[in-house]
Amino acid sequence: MFITSREKSIIELIVKTSGKHTVYSLSSFLNVSGRTVQRNLKSIESILKQYHLELKRTANEGLFIDGKNEHIYRLIQNLADVNPTDETPEERKLHLLIILLHEGPSFKKQVLANQLGTSVTTLSSYLDELADWLQKYGITLTRKRGVGVELVAEETDKRHALASFFLVYFYEDIIETLYGMQKGNHLDEKVLGYFNPDYIVVADRVVNHHLAEEQITLTDSDYIGLVVHICLTIQRTENGFGFHQNEPPEKEDSSEYHLMDKICRELKERLSVQLTHRDVQFLTVILKGSKVQDPDVVYYDSILLGHLIKNVIKDVSADLHVDLSDDFSLFQGLLAHMGPSIFRLQQELDLFNPLTDEIKKKYPVLFLAVKKSLETEFKDISFPDDEVAFIVLHFGSAMLMNEEKVNIQAVVVCPTGIGTSKMLASRIQRELTMINKVEILSIKDFQTADLGDYDIVISTVRLPFTEVEYILVSPLLSERDIGFIQSYLQNNVEKLTRKKYLKATARSSGKAEVRMLLKEIKDVHSSMEAILNNFRVYRMQSAGSHLRVLTEMVEEADRDELLQNSQVVLGQLMEREKKGGLGIPNTNMGLFHCRDDNVKQLIFQVAHLDEPCKIKGMDGVEMEMKSLLLMLAPEELSRREQEILSLISTSLIEDQISMMIYSSTNEGVIMKKLEHLFLDYLQTNLIKE
Fold first, then answer.
1. Residue 215 phi, psi (nearest 5)
2. Taking CA atoms, which of 119, 244, 430, 687 is between 20 and 30 Å from 445?
3. Structural contact between residues 367 and 392, judged by C-beta atoms closer than 8 angstroms
């Protein structure tokens, strides 16, 4: 029997005081968090199964072991004979990986086995598993007679491999430790036997401050990943493990680089540590590969990617005989997810999805349809099954959203990504028709949320809050999970109905829905009216510079009182151009756009140049621009307003005819194209047959 000291103590306490100990009392007795006890109980359930026993709870949440007396007696006998260990196999493999990456490059097997406190046979098994893991990162682990164990790798690959091992196997431990330290718990020992606790605390504060300042919100998993990479980078650099000269550097003109440079400079000051120029470049790649949590952050500027995503949605819709082509929520979610994911794939960063096999089994046809379409539309990118599975979750969510029903308010705490959480919310509403609304919150947002707004809390990870009652489920909601939720609702009917009586009546709820609909209609009307009223086609002299044309267009809009402070708006447009090319490949058009508080109305205008200008394309290649398209919007936009802008930008390259229309000098033809777009949108989204 493999068992840790804490697991053995918990079993002994439950046996001795059957029905008296709860998770909370065990956590107090053992001086650990309730979340740690919950995790140990999961392992204990597996151990008890071997003895035909079950872990159950009394009505007051007291824990007891259920089964025949002879089976309980056999368990107690075996517990008396077993020697517990305080290290799981994953912890030992982590310890081995740290030794290999920090004390290399070659080792004798017997020396390694002694360091780990295992036999040479067990060590060989661990080395086999680590060799497979490291191979994904281009790291070679060899074993030769007379030489021993040898590891060959670039520094970048070593950092990626070690960080990924922490995040895949110890993600919840890191969240729990970080949460405890945020609450003031001081640690004298290293976190997971590796990280300096002071580095984690300070890195968390600095990163959180700078992301908030830049109004950037990352998913929980990417936020923790960034903190882990930063702490790992500090410690690798401190130990003298720098980058080799032949490793390609990251470009330094991006907004991500400037943000990471600020973070690293503050860390150097506060921790008195050394971080090199190459460290900043390495961490910039990690930041660029992170996913923003709110898909609303991504709006109308990803034209090429948006066009390909629209095609993928059409392909999948055709294959499955379901029309998702007008689902803007699906489009937005995919746009927010796939931008960073494609960057990761291009940088050969790991994309780990623990649900891939389960998704392939549960949704084989949808998986095949999505994979086929991705291969058709993205010819230069190879999508691994892990990434295809993430995208399948977005489609699964969109398809299930059509079956929503009404009654109880639930909140899902799900840090594993936008698609996963939406998928879970939709599954809950399909399988449990009594649940009306399911809100999705990250762990961070959940800490400040008003729990009185929710009847039930559901989470896909163990939460670091002992005072919150919640149900732990798989992100794909198994039959067992559905049973747990149904049981909870059934046992709390009185409490749920009592809360409902204090809330607004169905009539006022209906009023709110009508007003929301009227607000959407108003947003659509004002957006379309602004675009059509403010549309202009200019014919201008370029004099070899698009800046002059852009300045004239912005100043003209200022004179028309469509915006104020034209210099600030112009500065924003220039900043946007620095972040990446704005020329649309395989056309003679460039789309210059920004969102700013100084813009009063939505603006879409076109300028045709007498002589073409050279600008950088969205694919990074220099191109000639003959038509400059200007799109401006206020900083705050509603979902419908974003939809209208996205509608225009994705129509620019939807086919050869559209490209000819927008690059023409005919104002009437372009206006007719916009009117056709808007009419089609109104008929599809607002006018019911």
1. 55, 45
2. 430
3. yes
Helix (H, G, I), strand (E, B) or coil at 542: coil
Domain range annotation of the chain: 5-81, 89-153, 161-288, 296-350+357-377, 404-501, 516-685
Q: Who's near 424: CB < 8 A, 6+ residues apart?
A: 412, 414, 458, 460, 473, 475, 476, 477
89-153 shares the fold of 5-81: yes
Predicted confidence at residue 507, as pLDDT, reads 42
> 330 is written with which tokens?
């699906």
| CATH superfamily entry for domain 516-685 | Mannitol-specific EII; Chain A (3.40.930.10)
Q: How much is the pLDDT for 506?
A: 41
Fold of 5-81: Arc Repressor Mutant, subunit A (1.10.10)
Please give the full DSSP string across 103-121, using - where no structure is assigned: S-SEE-HHHHHHHHTS-HH
Is it the case that residue 425 has pLDDT exceeding 60? yes
pLDDT at res. 350:
63
Q: How many residues does the chain have?
A: 689
pLDDT value at position 206? 92
Contact status, residue 50 vs residue 4, Cβ threshold 8 Å? no
Three-state DSSP class for residue 148: strand
pLDDT score at 233: 92
Phi-psi region of 612 (alpha: psi -120 to 50; beta: other; left: phi over 0): beta
Check if the beta carbon of residue 156 is closer than 8 Å to that of residue 123.
Answer: no
State yes or no: pLDDT of 241 exceeds 60. yes
CATH of domain 161-288: 1.10.1790
pLDDT band at 232 (very low <50, low <70, confident <90, very high): very high
535 vs 496, residue with greater confidence: 535
Residue 642: both structure tokens together: 């974003």
The per-residue pLDDT for range 587-609, each reduced to its tens digit, is 888 888 888 889 888 989 899 98
Considering the domain delimited by 404-501, tell me its CATH architecture.
Answer: 3-Layer(aba) Sandwich (3.40)
The phi, psi pair for 256, rounded to 5°, reads: -65, -40
